[in-house]
Design a protein that fits this description.
- The structure holds 2 protein chains of 2 kinds.
- Chain A is α+β, with helices and mostly antiparallel strands.
- Chain A has a single domain, classed as 3-Layer(aba) Sandwich (Glutaredoxin), CATH 3.40.30.
- In chain A, about 30% of the residues lie in helices and about 25% in strands.
- A 4-stranded mixed β-sheet of chain A has the order 2-1-4-5.
- Chain A is globular and about 35 Å long.
- Chain B contains 10 helices and 14 strands.
- Chain B is elongated and about 100 Å long.
- Classes of the chains: A alpha+beta, B alpha+beta.
Chain lengths: ~100, ~350
């Protein structure tokens, strides 16, 4: 069983940052329970880390492992759509940008 | 219609769009961006195209994201996402809109609404008590007790007149405050001969029978909005008569291209701890607030109007006691306003002038 590793880039301890982490956790528990780890990087506190990863905006989720690398940016509250964009729904692809998988 | 092809139109729209446009493919890789996106992200198109922006997700119409800018800076923008198709490929178009100006406008609007609520509440509070007292006095006159003497009736009428005058003064202050808040266009500055102007104001004021002394040189001319100047002087005079003790001395002089008007009383003066707050809106000295009716608007109005006229208003303690409220205003530079040489002469004249007792003006 693959374990997924994600890095969540946020900007400061804001309501939006907290919501992004909660959404990401819910997505992982729903789609890959017990097979995930999440690291949070504050781009405001560690601008060098965000720069290395060439993060252009937050919140951004980077799927670090396993390959292929994927990243999403913006609102994660539609966890099925976020999961699809991060390649968690095997064999199913995003269609027409409407969230269907 | 146009002969331009779709690709040219697409490029023209991208160039002209005020929003930052970032078009990404299904992997979140930037395929195109416009100049507004370059400006927002503070990176060139060469840097952006081919880099991974991320697959853009929004819930509903839009979502806020924070742009990570060079040198550790950031900017919050609103992101909208639409699906486009180019050469059989899906493109996800993220439109980034700088929300800074909108948030600033929202903040200004919110502050204005809160301020308006405070203004209405203070006005209602200030008007309520005098109106209630007025109503009670009128009720006594409408249904007089059998033993109401002519003398008592005259006294009641006098109290009604006094309270009506206070209400008129209060309403005048509230209207002036609203005028300042609304940045209404103030009157055009014009030459005003100070001595004649002050005598007119005294004749119109409720200061009849009070001990007022005026020492103002003749031919001293300021250049101000007359309505604003009248308001400043009236507020200072009312303040001196309400909180100070007579005699009230009104002096003016020319100094350094300005005229300086001072209204001094012989009361207890202003406690040192309250002096820094004297000209703040709605601030009243707790030591006198309970005993004396007031709005906390008069001195704030005086300073606002003085500054709007290119001058200033301030307080100085009296010597040996009392309060001195001062205002400086531009001296009129036209021939009738006098030259700086004349100003020095006026200054000397003012010092030589004996105060005129205007009791009963």
């Amino acid at each position: 069983m693959k374990t997924y590793s994600f890095v969540l880039y946020v900007s400061g301890r804001t309501e939006r940052s907290t919501a992004a982490l909660a959404d990401l956790r819910l997505m992982c528990r729903t789609h890959i329970p017990d097979r995930f780890e999440i690291r949070v990087v504050d781009a405001a506190g560690e601008p060098g880390r965000a720069d290395e990863e060439r993060v252009l905006a937050t919140p951004t989720v980077v799927r670090a492992t396993p390959p292929p690398a994927r990243r999403v940016i913006g609102d994660l509250s539609d966890i099925d759509r976020a999961a699809a964009a991060l390649g968690l729904l095997d064999g199913r692809e995003m269609k027409e940008g409407n969230g269907e998988t | 219609m146009t002969d331009d092809g779709p690709r040219d139109l697409y490029q023209a729209m991208m160039l002209a769009a005020p929003d930052g446009i970032v078009a990404v493919d299904g992997d979140g890789c930037v395929r195109a961006c416009n100049p507004a996106a370059e400006a927002l992200l503070e990176r060139t198109a060469d840097e952006l195209v081919g880099s991974v922006f991320g697959f853009p997700l929004v819930d509903g119409e839009s979502t806020e994201v924070t742009l990570v800018l060079p040198n550790g800076r950031s900017k919050v923008v609103e992101m909208r996402v639409t699906l486009a198709q180019l050469d059989d490929r899906h493109l996800y178009v993220a439109a980034l809109r700088d929300g800074t100006r909108r948030r600033q406008a929202d903040h200004v609007l919110q502050s204005a609404l809160e301020h308006q609520s405070v203004v209405v509440a203070v006005a209602a509070h200030q008007l309520h008590n005098p109106l209630a007292a007025l109503g009670a006095l009128v009720h006594v006159l409408r249904e007089p007790p059998p033993d109401l003497t002519d003398e008592r009736r005259a006294e009641l009428v006098e109290r009604i007149a006094e309270r009506t005058a206070r209400l008129q003064s209060l309403v005048r202050k509230l209207l002036t405050a609203a005028r300042i808040d609304g940045a209404w266009q103030q009157g055009v500055p014009e030459p005003v001969e100070v001595l004649g102007f002050l005598l007119e104001r005294l004749a119109e004021s409720e200061a009849r029978g009070r001990d007022l002394r005026l020492a103002v040189p003749a031919h001293l001319v300021t250049r101000v909005d007359r309505v604003g100047f009248a308001e400043i002087f009236t507020d200072y005079l009312e303040n001196a008569l309400a909180y100070g003790r007579e005699p009230v001395e009104i002096t003016a002089r020319a100094t350094g291209g300005r005229i300086e008007l001072r209204v001094a009383d012989h009361g207890p003066g202003v406690p040192e701890s309250f002096v820094p707050h004297l000209f703040e809106r709605y601030r009243r000295d707790p030591a006198t607030a309970a005993a004396t009716e007031g709005t906390g608007l008069g001195l704030w109005i005086a300073r606002s109007l003085a500054r709007a006229n290119g001058g200033d208003a301030w307080y100085e303690p009296g010597r040996p006691n009392g309060a001195v409220f001062c205002v400086s205003l531009p001296q009129d530079a036209s021939p009738q306003g006098g030259s700086p040489q004349d100003a020095d002469n006026q200054d000397a004249n003012a010092q030589d002038a004996n105060p005129q007792d205007v009791n009963g003006a």
